[in-house]
Design brief:
Helix content: 40-55%
Number of strands: 8
Radius of gyration: 21 Å
Structural class: alpha/beta
Order of helices and strands: HHHHEEEHHEHHEHEEHHHEHH
Number of domains: 2
Number of helices: 14
Distance between the termini: 55 Å
Shape: globular
CATH class of the largest domain: Alpha Beta
CATH topology of the largest domain: 2-enoyl-CoA Hydratase, Chain A, domain 1
Largest sheet: 8 strands, mixed
Strand content: 15-25%
Length: 317
């Protein structure tokens, strides 16, 4: 059963009422089609009102929904002949980062993305989607391979952040992330990144130095979680809702500031409601980006990426 978020309560209650009437109609051969139609119309209007006016904290909850589609879910729907590649050739394989080669519209591409689990067992295996250094080194290995063979790179961002544990620091977490930023900036193939859930801190940015950055409508992208920001600013993590509003971490805010290029619309209620339809929307965004970026040569791609990040923010003397 899907987790119900607080702001969805009126919708859930109305759906339950509709289901009760439908069951009563089926069991008693009573025609309540008129009443059911009226309630369905009311439900549609209510969904448009609630999902069309979500606050930043509401979007955070949707981005964290346990049933939200992951990188592997989208790979299954969007790409053909996916061959997953493992290991960083230095230490080991990190299950929090998945990557490999596939076909998109019949053309070879390299796919890299954060991967979290959907239950406790898988989350432990995937380290809750928080990569170790070997995960980022695996990602960089696949990016350099893609550049060697002229394949566009498509990244899916979905992590609370890089794993902050002692072992990760001992193996060079900061250096691994920093190297990815530098190397991605100079890649001479198209790079498209899509934030599909949470995009947290440098752990997300390590896959985010792209020519085009897109975000799902209810995803978040920030330097820190709202709880972390609230703890630092006000010494109280319970003020996360206020922090989420102040941090400007939602897709509309980031689009307005020029940090992302495009907002990918989500199906009503969030991507988890219909992953297949959501994949169609993501596919359109990827296709549109690759059509534009294929017109640029290697030098132009690097310049395009540089100017994109150079233009973020306001400079004053």
């Amino acid at each position: 059963m899907s987790k119900t978020m607080a702001f969805e309560e009126p919708i859930v209650k109305l759906r339950e009422k509709i289901n009760e009437l439908e069951e009563f109609t089926a069991a008693n051969s009573v025609d309540l089609s008129g009443e059911i139609k009226t309630l369905n119309n009311r439900l549609k209007n209510l969904e448009e009102e609630i999902y069309g006016n979500m606050e930043p904290w509401d979007r955070v909850q949707v981005a964290r929904h346990p049933a939200r589609p992951t990188t592997l879910d989208y790979i299954k729907e969007l790409f053909e002949d996916f061959m997953q590649l493992h290991g960083d050739r230095f230490y080991g394989d990190d299950a929090a980062i998945v990557g490999g080669i596939a076909a998109f519209d019949g053309r070879p591409v390299t796919i890299i993305g954060h991967q979290r689990g959907k239950d406790t067992k898988e989350n432990v295996k995937r380290n809750f989607g928080m990569p170790h250094p070997e995960g980022y080194r695996k990602a960089l290995r696949l990016m350099k391979q893609a550049e060697k063979f002229g394949r566009p790179i498509i990244c899916f961002i979905d992590t609370k952040g890089a794993f902050p544990g002692k072992a990760a620091e001992e193996r060079g977490q900061s250096e691994a992330i920093a190297r990815n930023l530098v190397e991605m900036a100079g890649l001479q193939v198209p790079v498209v990144s899509i934030v599909i859930g949470e995009g947290g801190s440098g752990g997300a940015l390590a896959l985010g130095v792209a020519n085009h950055i897109h975000m799902l409508e209810h995803s978040t992208y920030s330097v820190i979680s709202p709880e972390g920001a609230a703890t630092i600013l006000w010494k109280d993590s319970s003020l996360a809702k206020q922090a989420a509003e102040a941090m400007k971490i939602t897709a509309p805010d980031l689009k307005e500031m020029g940090i992302i290029d495009e907002i990918i619309p989500e199906v009503t209620g969030g991507a988890h409601r219909d992953p297949k339809v959501q994949s169609v929307h993501i596919g359109k965004a990827i296709r549109h980006s690759l059509e534009k970026l294929r017109l640029l040569d290697g030098r132009e791609l690097v310049e395009d990426r540089y100017m994109k990040f150079r233009g973020i923010g306001v400079f004053s003397e």
